[in-house]
């Protein structure tokens, strides 16, 4: 029924909601060209649908709107912090992965170094044995020469 009503411009009017501090949440019909932000009023057609809110209702609604805005701000702040934490987590995970690889590389080196130590031990042992064999040969030759 309301939508069939037309303003002086010939446009069908639609039900709209005011969000001013004076009339928060109050419904009205107005010219299609009515714009509260620009102050443009079209053909001046304007009618409130709801009764004028009582002072306490106005206060409650405005308080709730303010709280809603505060929550929205807090939420976007928290979202920003979560994004930062996610970023830091990613960075730390990458760092940890890098350090893990480094450690594995070092471990690989350590085991090959141990191999080298074992190898040198073998070489040392062979040298000692060889030396002992040579010494015993020399000793036996000397003994044979002295006795002989
Ligand atoms: Zn109009």
Structural write-up:
The chain has 148 residues and is mostly helical. The chain has two domains: 1-53, no CATH class; 55-108. The chain is built from one helix and three strands; from the N terminus they run E-E-E-H. The chain has one helix at residues 55-147; strands spanning 14-19, 24-30, 46-48. A three-stranded antiparallel beta sheet has the order 1-2-3. The termini are far apart. Bound molecules: zinc ion. Residues 7-9, 11, 31, 33, 42-43, 45 line the site of zinc ion (ZN).
What are the main properties of this structure?
mainly alpha; 2 domains
The main pleated sheet reads as: 3 strands, antiparallel
Output mean pLDDT.
Answer: 87
Number of domains: 2
Radius of gyration: 46 Å
Q: Uncertain runs with pLDDT below 50, 5 residues or more?
A: none
Structural class: mainly alpha
The kinds of small molecule bound in this structure are: zinc ion
The number of distinct helices, counting runs of at least 4 residues, comes to 1
Alpha-carbon distance between the two ends: 142 Å
SSE string: EEEH
What proportion strand? 5-15%
Residues in helix, %: 55-70%
- Described by the principal axes of the CA atoms, the overall outline is rod-shaped
Major sheet: order of its strands? Answer: 1-2-3
Number of strands: 3
Summed up:
The chain is mainly α. It contains 1 helix and 3 strands.
SSE topology sketch:
Blueprint: E1 14-19, E2 24-30, E3 46-48, H1 55-147
Antiparallel strand pairs: 1-2, 2-3
Bound molecules: zinc ion.
The site of zinc ion (ZN) has 9 residues, from loops.
């Amino acid at each position: 029924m309301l939508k069939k009503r037309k303003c002086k411009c010939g446009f069908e009017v639609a039900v709209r909601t005011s969000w001013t501090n004076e009339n928060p949440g109050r419904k009205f019909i107005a010219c299609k060209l009515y714009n509260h932000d620009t102050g443009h009023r079209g053909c001046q057609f304007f009618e409130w649908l709801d009764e004028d809110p009582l002072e306490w209702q106005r206060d409650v609604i405005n308080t709730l709107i303010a709280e809603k805005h505060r929550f929205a701000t807090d939420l976007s702040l928290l979202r920003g912090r979560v994004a930062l934490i996610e970023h830091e987590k990613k960075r730390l995970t990458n760092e940890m992965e890098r350090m893990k690889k480094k450690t594995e590389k070092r471990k690989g080196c350590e085991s090959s170094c141990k191999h080298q130590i074992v190898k040198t031990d073998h070489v040392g042992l062979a040298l000692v044995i060889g030396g002992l064999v040579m010494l015993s040969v020399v000793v036996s030759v000397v003994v044979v020469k002295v006795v002989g």
